[in-house]
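Title: Prediction job returns without error message
Component: structure pipeline
Severity: low
Priority: P3
Assignee: unassigned

Description:
Job completed but the reporter wants confirmation the result is attached to the right record. Sequence as submitted:
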Amino acid sequence: MDIDSQNIKSSGEEGASMQTDSKDSSNSQGNSKEKEELSESMDKLHIEGSSSGQAGTSSPNFRRKPVIIIVVGMAGSGKTTFLHRLVCHTQASNIRGYVMNLDPAVMTLPYGANIDIRDTVKYKEVMKQFNLGPNGGILTSLNLFATRFDEVISMIEKRADTLDYVLVDTPGQIEIFTWSASGAIITEAFASTFPTVIAYVVDTPRASSPVTFMSNMLYACSILYKTRLPLVLAFNKTDVAQHQFALEWMEDFEAFQAAVSSDQSYTSTLTQSLSLVLDEFYKNLRSVGVSAVSGAGMVAFFKAIEASSEEYMETYKAELDKRRAEKLRLEEERKKENLNKFRKDREGAEKAAVLSTGLKDKGVGSKTTMMDEEGGEIEEEDDNDDDDDDHGGFSEDEDFIDEDEDEEVSKFSF
């Protein structure tokens, strides 16, 4: 990066000198030399940039910046308020951010969105036109918006050099985004172009119950395996209840067992068993306590996002490239298989066409020519009665006439 910055600075200085020299027409030779030096430095910069791009990423359109932060969470966990706090923090810290709203049913937003799904899809009109309920209207609106999501990606790519983060707010119904086809399309479109991190917002006061805490952790684990992206747990509303108990339960299995042991129901027994399963999940998970109202924990949250973006480049990006290469390989095999099948069908059709032009396909009643032993042609007639009549066969009447003629001839014979 230092070399690139020096080249950019030198190119800027040379560009400035070119402007001053253009005013003075007498220094044309110096101007041409500076143009050559500028072109050489730009070529060198282009070569260095392309080599670094090949070393870091396999796809040419991939960019290390900006980092996409997709905020998800249960209904009532405070996603929209938390995103508003993130926007305020980026503005106060001179962090270049870009805001996107994907909730078509929200009435008002506490922040200004650069890209708003409500500007493209009318939620109530979708409900009326397709006779849908609230959840079906949200899902259909998101599906319609996902069909043109390539234009959203192109808009962000144009501004990528001037952005650090892209903050994405999702619908309140978490299953609509995480388990729908449109949610998968949007997530994969982001992840294939920019480093993407999932921020799972947890309602800390409600998670104080061990059973509710385990439900949140199971859902977070399912999102991690569904999206295959880095996940950051944001324990929201720490101004109401501190999240230290959650960190203790995640780090100490015995502490969680002690909290669950007071209840002997089937749900508590299942929760104890699941805590053993999620032990490995807790070790590789980043969690931060935040407050959307007071703004506490914002610095720690962005540090966790930066660490997750580095993890994305090291681990998740390689896995994504591997899956993309496997998909391309399967598509190539499918194309070859279809091409071979087409060739076989075409060869079979050509053979059938050649056989159909032979002598076997002539109509019934036709004559066939054979060669006798001496080389002469012998015409064989068919056995049909009609053919016998047509080719000179004798009937009984004709025989009777022939006999009378013989008798008359014999009378005049000598």
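Comment from assignee: result matches the submitted record. The chain has a mean pLDDT of 77.
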